[in-house]
From TrEMBL, chains A, B:
SUPFAM superfamilies: Actin-like ATPase domain (SSF53067)
UniProt source species: Eeniella nana
Name of the featured protein: Pantothenate kinase
A GO BP entry: coenzyme A biosynthetic process
Keyword annotations from UniProtKB, A to Z: ATP-binding, Coenzyme A biosynthesis, Nucleotide-binding
UniProt GO MF annotations: ATP binding; pantothenate kinase activity
GO cellular component: cytosol; nucleus
Lineage: Eukaryota, Fungi, Dikarya, Ascomycota, Saccharomycotina
Amino acid sequence: MTESSSTSSHQNSSIYIHHHCENPKPLQVADAHIIYDEKNYLPDEVPDTRDIALPYNEDKINEISIDIGGSLAKLCYSKPDPQAGGVRLCFYSLETDKIDLFIRFIQEILVQYYHHDPAHHLYNENLVVIATGGGAYKYYDKLRHELHCTVQKEDEMQCLIIGLDFFVTEIKREVFYFDEAKHCYVEVELNDDENGQTEVIEDQYPYLLVNIGSGVSMIKVTGPGPDSFLRVGGSSLGGGTLWGLLSILTDCRTFDEMLEMAAQGNNENVDLLVGDIYGQGYNSIGLKANHIASSMGKVYKKVFEDEKGRNEDREHRLHKFHQQDIARSLLYAVSNNIGQIAYLQAQRYNLKKIYFAGSYIRNHYQTIRTLSYAIDFWSGGTKKAYFLRHEGYLGSMGAFLMRRAD
Amino acid sequence: MTESSSTSSHQNSSIYIHHHCENPKPLQVADAHIIYDEKNYLPDEVPDTRDIALPYNEDKINEISIDIGGSLAKLCYSKPDPQAGGVRLCFYSLETDKIDLFIRFIQEILVQYYHHDPAHHLYNENLVVIATGGGAYKYYDKLRHELHCTVQKEDEMQCLIIGLDFFVTEIKREVFYFDEAKHCYVEVELNDDENGQTEVIEDQYPYLLVNIGSGVSMIKVTGPGPDSFLRVGGSSLGGGTLWGLLSILTDCRTFDEMLEMAAQGNNENVDLLVGDIYGQGYNSIGLKANHIASSMGKVYKKVFEDEKGRNEDREHRLHKFHQQDIARSLLYAVSNNIGQIAYLQAQRYNLKKIYFAGSYIRNHYQTIRTLSYAIDFWSGGTKKAYFLRHEGYLGSMGAFLMRRAD
């Protein structure tokens, strides 16, 4: 991936360049690391928007990047790090529907760290906002008009790949998987670190990237260059589907409340299991009694169990169920489904490594575990699911790295 | 499939025998046909539980068959046809939860057509109820105890295959597909009929059977015998999921009301389209502006658009949406998803023909069209989706054909 740094990512002369365009500006990544506030870091806490330090990066950075998706608008910018030296990469996100607020936040960042005040209405051609995601196109004119600088549009799929490659190759402690047997997270590195203490991923390529936002995109990557990736498919059953259903089936006010509710639920109260249909497992085809045969498959039976139930309106029908059970069932349904389709795509293209990213996972234990288990189940253990701490920021990180030297 | 009838299905000596067990009882299928009540048959009406006439079948039939699934219990039995001669095969279904009522119905059939009255409590070993589906195991003792005859259990996957093969090879006007360009159903036959008026399917094997009940099973079939089929996968997002969600998100009282509601809805009011995210299509990856990026992806945004919305309870949140729009969105979501997974399985095993069956479809236009379109879209037109009029009765038909001559 990087000419000089693939085996020497911790030497002083470690430069990161991707191969997706001509003349990308290099980034000094020697000793790049996620910044943990030691006071607040708990063993179970998976930091997802923590800054990344680039202590040896002294060059002036004239770029910020944004990735405006269907649900969330993501920002990646740099600021000086007076204490450690160099710069920090910082990450921020806000609902896409609050686009005006998002743009105001960018303006504040530009004033504070980029010496550019859009309020002066003076166009600064040296300053570049690199924009990806659908909103880069939908809001292009608005961005240009309100930020008064260059807006450089980049392809969403490409930025996801570039961002992923950067995180995987250059940032320690970024990538991890869930070990079902030991019931814990395990961090991995692409290259052996000096201590030999982290588990190593062999062979960066090929892999499947599954990005789960409002919807799902699945991208096959076979090498470092612009001709080596292909969006092979996706799904419309993504984060937007789960949040949408749970926003009208529960009283939750945020995504995190929904996930917390799911953690408390018992899906077996609403899901139809093989055991419910067979009275036992369906052994000849390897389906255990607790395998989910039909998500939410018990619900309509309960609603329609008698004439009275059939005649009730929606509000009364819903009261027959615990919100928590519905939340858990749907979290499993959406996650298992993504896992299955990801497996089938990986199998199709003979890919052993599957990276799950996007704002859906929110580093939530059940979601990570469900996706992991699905890959393990369908592949008979021959494929592996990986996750990233900066899971929602692949696109904005990749866009940031599309800085041009011209 | 049949030794003497593969090219002579309309001659007097047309015997049907499958190859899934030793000594299956043959069935006389010369001139087998679906019975249409001419007075009630409308051009658009797709008859799904109509009797099948076997006018030359004179042998006494001592068997009935049942397929008890997660949601529906299906029955296949024969009765004499004094007018046309021979027998009719008849089909009946009831919710599995009404198992006692179902058994009472079977008892009535046994009295009326099989000269067996379970009320006499006399065990009749010559009479056989061939049972498949999970309920064959779950309710085995109950069936034996209340029907007082032999209960012969048969594997569900195998019965589906046997039933499908029978319908495809022996019953004219049973199989059809949806022609998107001409916007109409087209009946197909496996063999050329004398008139040459029906479209012909070449090569019975191989194919993928996708059976959609509460959940989904996908079975690859490469030949006529018991070793030539394999359940390659399935999905927990099936009929039970759609009915479950719609039973608490709408006021509908039946499945048909739900489908009617879906037909009236506009899913674009609740789904997030590529055009909503990009302001246009995402042309470089071939996604048009009206492609669904996220099913129900607009819903949570509307619920959470302000603090007031966030604080409302579920009942009030739901009122922001039309039931019809939600119904259509979820019908598309579940159907498209099944279509995609079916495509990936067919692609994996190099199968060009995909039969969709099960009680989910209910011969509903939108569902048929969505499944057809999904296969066409994902396969670039290289694979084809087929449907059956007796879609819900593959398992019970196949079980019926497991009559033993011993």
